[in-house]
Amino acid sequence: MWRKILDQFQDSPSQQRVVRFLLENGFGVSPEGKTIVNGIEISASALSRVIKVDRRVVDATLRRIIEIDELQSLFSRLRVTPDLTDVAKNLGLSVITILPNNAGDKNIVSSAVDVLASYDLTLRQIFVTDPYVVETPRLVIIIDGVIPAEAIQKLRSLPTVRSLIL
């Protein structure tokens, strides 16, 4: 599905970068063609600085999105969810980032969760980055407390795991 969305902007690599940024970050588009984050408007100038494109590219991309019913319907519903990764240590949580061998493998999440469940660890947050939207897809799991060394070894030995970042 993401590929289909990005293909709509195939004729403009800079607009495709804007769309990719919106998708990666959960930024929506209002019916008026403004970027919104959980209902809060973000200026095209602010976005253009972060994405490193001209503000007019952002404006043109947003207009294009609201002109295509399927895209307008999708982008009007996007929401941002807090990512606890950078504050986990302050909250007494641990972060496990798994880089998969093959992001298309259907067992990545279940095999990792099975290992952690066998140690009776409480999962606080889990998310997977979409391989169609990001260059380096990953599975991020945030748990209460410290991850036992044995659990780390079992995670590393899973056939779906290329590498593990703690």
UniProtKB/TrEMBL annotation:
InterPro entries: UCP004897_ACT (IPR014424)
Source taxon at top rank: Archaea
Listed name of the protein: Regulator of amino acid metabolism, contains ACT domain protein
